[in-house]
Amino acid sequence: MLDTEAIRKQFPGLDDESHGKPLVYLDTAASAQKPLAVIERMDSFLRHDYGTVHRGLYQRSIASTQSYEDARATVAKFLNAPSVDNIVFTMGCTDAINLVAWSWGRAHLKSGDKILISAMEHHANIVPWQLIGELTGAELIVCPIHDDGSLNMEAFDKLLDSSVKLVSMVHISNALGTINPIKSCIEKAHAVGAKFLVDAAQSTPHIAIDVQDLDCDFLVFSSHKIYGPTGIGALYGKKDVLESMPPWRGGGEMIEKVTFEKTTYAAPPGRFEAGTPPIVEAIGMAAACDWLMDIGFEQIHEKDQELFNYAEEHIQQVPHLTRIGTAPQRSTAISFVMDDAHASDISNILDMEGIAIRAGHHCAQPVMDRFGIPATARISLGIYNNKDDIDRAVAALHKVADLFY
Ligand SMILES: *Cc1c(COP(=O)(O)O)cnc(C)c1O
């Protein structure tokens, strides 16, 4: 069993107080705190090893390039990708989806084609497809969800035909906590010849990802949600799919040969990494991957489920509180509303108790519209949370209930 107390000690960001009370951090789905393993790796690299990558012929730059490319190998291992060439460093999940939209989408989509997403997507997996749809004439279609927040598989089957060229879907919903049956969706998409992109922003911190087993064409995630630094993330792409894609940003690093008449481009992944990359952040992200793999996802999953069940059980007992997102397969995030207390009131009152939770639309406004609510309050769990955190949040929610009713 995961030793949560030992894990907590590795997070200096949790030591501080908030409003004079020990901080309870329950907003990991938005962004995770950072362990010493990440902080110290980045600190040490900045102090002792920093140099630019891919250009220098001197020792420092060669070593720095090695560390940067080692980071790519670590990410490949983290996703069980067949090769480092499948891993493109991006600025994050949003940036990775935009890369696929502007490169793959612009090259492969045309009028009459469809892009299929679900009704529980983050804005990052909606807006890029709207933009590329406007440009190419491809139509964005949306698979509905049931009242419990699970994917409507009958509708999915109906919507999926050979006019669908890409399915882009979240693995675990940040707003509802729904875990989608992603593997069977990928199989079905492939059966009609569509490519599949997995938004793994919320699954990568919690479950072991195996892109070869999933057989997805693309998978994207953000470092800052897996306890790494901001400003970096990754795109996994199948080799032939990446090779079929033109560059989307021009500059240094992504070229093979440049003349004023014609420029030829580097092979993937370099083709998609124009400019000096976030070197320190890539190394920090790899430290986070290593740290999670060392702990082991079996242990993480076991602890997640136990704490999630404990949290749900106690949160449900708060009077005037309604859970939003009760799909049979769910994890990680617990969204709710309270009869008269607005989500932002709930968050403000909890903040005064030193408890950080999220209130709002969670960058998923269509999900809120689906449930006819403006916002939810959301508690989301990280590797460092314990029952005491939940008890304090639940006690504060009881206070909210007493205040308003
Ligand atoms: C956070 C999140 C994103 C966007 O990630 P960024 O790091 O903001 O680019 C996309 N999808 C889901 C499900 C998320 O939770």
Short structural description:
The chain is an alpha/beta fold and 405 residues long. The chain has helices at residues 4-8, 36-49, 59-78, 93-108, 127-136, 153-159, 182-191, 211-214, 239-243, 279-295, 297-316, 343-352, 365-371, 387-404; strands at 17-18, 21-22, 24-25, 87-90, 114-118, 139-143, 164-170, 195-199, 218-222, 233-237, 255-258, 263-265, 321-324, 333-338, 355-356, 358-360, 376-380.
Give me some keywords for this one.
alpha/beta; Aspartate Aminotransferase, domain 1; Aspartate Aminotransferase, domain 2; seven-stranded mixed β-sheet; 14 helices; binds pyridoxal-5'-phosphate
Characterise the protein shown here.
40% of the residues lie in helices and 17% in strands. It folds into two domains: 4-30 and 296-404, Aspartate Aminotransferase, domain 1 (Alpha-Beta Complex); 39-294, 3-Layer(aba) Sandwich (Aspartate Aminotransferase, domain 2). The protein is an alpha/beta fold and 405 residues long. The longest helix has 20 residues, at 59-78. Helix 7 (182-191) links the parallel strand 7 (164-170) and strand 8. Helix 4 (93-108) runs parallel beside helix 5 (127-136). Bound molecules: pyridoxal-5'-phosphate. Residues 92-94, 122, 124-125, 170, 174, 199, 201-202, 222, 224-225 line the site of pyridoxal-5'-phosphate. The site of pyridoxal-5'-phosphate has 14 residues, from helix 4.
Shape by Cα distribution: globular
Q: Would you tell me the overall average pLDDT?
A: 96
Which distinct ligands sit in these coordinates?
Answer: pyridoxal-5'-phosphate
Kindly report the spatial arrangement of strands forming the biggest sheet.
Answer: 4-10-9-8-7-5-6
Total domain count: 2
CATH class of the largest domain: Alpha Beta
User: Could you state the oligomeric state of the chains shown?
Assistant: single chain
Q: Please give the share of residues in helix.
A: 40-55%
